């Protein structure tokens, strides 16, 4: 923990060292796996489905590895989550109660997400995404900035914890998760589905 804090003692900046570039690449790849993994788990794990269903459809979410790091922009949808592109944001906004959304509103939704989670430094996100610490520990340890409805944020954190259960081997899961819940599908099947989904998209 102290080692990670020393790495991020200075203000976050663009990445220049080889180590920072490698951390950036690893975090970007894992964000892609996380996105596809959550979409697949939404269909196969009722716990993930229940938590994602607690987030209203059309809610925009941004998960950033740091102020200059890779990020994932998604929208809560009938599939659990979808990538948040301007076109999709516009469609979801038009389906809101007032129905008065336009292109500018869609752009604003993309820039100002309903739920915004940003790690305070790349080292923190790298530690979480490589199984050194759990997402819940990072959240409780104030290693990230959060903005939005707290109950929805906690639902998202629980979904990410479930994804960690599948994506990390059991010996890592025991270290970063309070309890290893039974899997609804095998990790091998999940990884195969993720890779297949990434190829199609």
Description:
α4 packs across α5. The N and C termini lie far apart (37 Å). The protein is of the alpha+beta class and 201 residues long. It has one domain (2-200). It is globular and about 40 Å long. Residues 1-11 and 99-106 have low confidence and may be disordered. Strands 3-2-1-4-5 form a five-stranded mixed beta sheet. β2 (71-77) and β3 form a beta hairpin. The protein is built from ten helices and five strands.
In short:
By secondary structure, the protein is an alpha+beta fold. The chain is built from ten helices and five strands; from the N terminus they run H-H-H-E-E-E-H-H-E-H-H-E-H-H-H.
Task: Describe the secondary structure blueprint for this structure.
Layout lengths: L1 H6 L10 H27 L1 H8 L6 E5 L6 E7 L2 E4 L2 H9 L8 H9 L3 E5 L2 H8 L5 H6 L3 E4 L2 H18 L2 H7 L10 H14 L1
Parallel strand pairs: 1-4
Antiparallel strand pairs: 1-2, 2-3, 4-5
Helix pairs in contact: 2-3, 2-6, 2-8, 2-10, 3-8, 4-5
Search tags:
201 residues, alpha+beta, five-stranded mixed β-sheet, globular
Rg from Cα: 17 Å
> How far apart, in Å, are the first and last alpha carbons?
37 Å
The amount of helix comes to 55-70%
Largest sheet: 5 strands, mixed
SSE order: HHHEEEHHEHHEHHH
Q: How many domains make up the coordinates? A: 1
Number of strands: 5
Number of helices: 10
Fraction of residues in β-strands: 5-15%
What best-fitting shape do the alpha-carbon axes yield? globular
Uncertain spans, ≥5 residues at pLDDT below 50? Answer: 1-11, 99-106
What is the overall pLDDT average? 81
Structural class, by secondary structure, is alpha+beta
Major sheet: order of its strands?
3-2-1-4-5
């Amino acid at each position: 923990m102290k080692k990670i804090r020393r790495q991020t003692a200075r203000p976050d900046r663009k990445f220049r060292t080889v180590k920072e570039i490698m951390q950036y690449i690893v975090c970007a790849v894992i964000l892609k796996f996380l996105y596809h993994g959550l979409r697949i788990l939404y269909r196969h794990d009722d716990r993930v489905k229940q938590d994602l269903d607690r987030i209203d459809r059309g809610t925009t979410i941004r998960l950033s590895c740091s102020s200059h790091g890779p990020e994932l922009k998604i929208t809560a949808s009938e599939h659990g989550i979808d990538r948040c592109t301007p076109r999709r944001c516009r469609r979801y906004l038009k389906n809101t109660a007032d129905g008065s959304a336009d292109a500018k509103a869609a752009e604003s939704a993309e820039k100002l997400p309903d739920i915004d989670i940003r790690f305070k430094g790349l080292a923190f996100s790298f530690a979480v995404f490589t199984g050194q610490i759990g997402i819940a520990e990072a959240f409780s340890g104030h290693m990230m900035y959060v903005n939005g409805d707290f109950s929805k944020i906690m639902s998202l954190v629980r979904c990410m914890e479930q994804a960690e259960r599948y994506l990390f081997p059991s010996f890592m899961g025991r270290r970063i998760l309070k309890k290893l819940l039974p899997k609804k599908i095998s990790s091998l099947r999940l990884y195969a589905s993720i890779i297949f989904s990434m190829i199609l998209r």
